[in-house]
Specification:
Elements: H1 5-19, E1 27-31, H2 35-41, H3 46-55, H4 57-67, E2 71-78, H5 86-106, E3 110-114, H6 122-135, E4 142-149, H7 151-169, H8 173-179, H9 182-186, E5 199-202, E6 221-224, H10 234-246
Parallel strand pairs: 1-2, 1-5, 2-4, 3-4, 5-6
Helix pairs in contact: 1-10, 2-3, 3-5, 5-6
């Protein structure tokens, strides 16, 4: 239930005050879940939910930038999603392409495509590549757009790239097996060179990671929110940050 408007603003300000001087995550991953269920609750087609969810992205990036987050990873389409009804997938890919072009047009954030673009139609893959190029010189927050993304798929791609690199260099397989480290694989992930996510948020009430940033999230804090992604509010984000700031991060130690 939404708070009356004046109380809502007062509560937001109180949360922001509590976050002053608190630990803020450098990298936030977001599983933007619940678009279809949001649409179903209104008797609308799935595309309406996906469109509303896409329209909500820039607002979320504003909130993240405001508190000092440096990297945001948005999971927009998983490898599993590609096996849904073809008509829904086609609508979703069109909505994602439009959303990515708008984010690039804003020239406020540095975009990076995260996923296997070979799984996508060429026009969608081209849109993602062009968005990367058009924002490469932008000094703002890094925004990873995860499309055609799956955690197992990413790790498989990383290992494949590593093996190919050493095969081309003539490294004997026995030597590679002996020298292989966690860092070698990390250097071939889609997010290479970026900090691992400190906080992962999943909307819609589901409490599982579904393969999102499977390698990178080993030490992440998770926050599960009941709101569907189109209804995810600034106050919900601030609550997630408050929860994160209150936790003792052991980082495996």
């Amino acid at each position: 239930m939404r708070l009356p408007h004046p109380l809502y603003r007062i509560y937001e300000r109180r949360l922001l005050n509590r976050l002053r001087g608190a630990s803020i995550p450098r990298h936030v991953g977001v599983m933007m879940d619940g678009n279809r269920r949001w649409a179903r609750s209104l008797g609308a087609p799935a595309a309406a939910g996906h469109r509303r969810g896409a329209d909500h992205i820039a607002e979320f990036l504003d909130w993240s930038e405001e508190v000092g987050v440096e990297v945001v990873t948005l999971w927009m389409l998983s490898t599993d999603n590609l096996h849904r009804d073809p008509a829904e997938v086609a609508d979703l890919l069109e909505i994602i392409s439009t959303a990515v072009r708008r984010l690039a047009d804003a020239r406020r954030w540095r975009l990076k495509a995260v996923g296997d673009l070979r799984l996508l139609p060429e026009d969608v893959a081209r849109t993602l590549r062009e968005a990367e190029k058009r924002t490469a010189d932008v000094g703002g927050m890094q925004v990873n757009v995860a499309v055609g993304y799956g955690g197992r798929h990413e790790i498989t791609d990383a290992v494949r790239a590593l093996l190919r690199e050493h095969a081309e260099a003539g490294t004997p397989i026995e030597q590679l097996a002996e020298a292989l480290t966690v860092e070698h694989i990390a250097q071939h992930l889609y997010t290479q060179g970026q900090p691992d996510p400190d906080l992962v948020i999943r909307t819609s009430g589901e409490q599982r990671i579904g393969g999102f940033l499977l390698w990178q999230s080993v030490h992440s804090e998770f926050y599960f929110c009941d709101a569907y992604w189109p209804d995810f509010r600034r106050v919900d984000f601030l609550r997630a940050l408050r929860s994160y700031a209150a936790r003792e991060r052991r980082l495996g130690r």
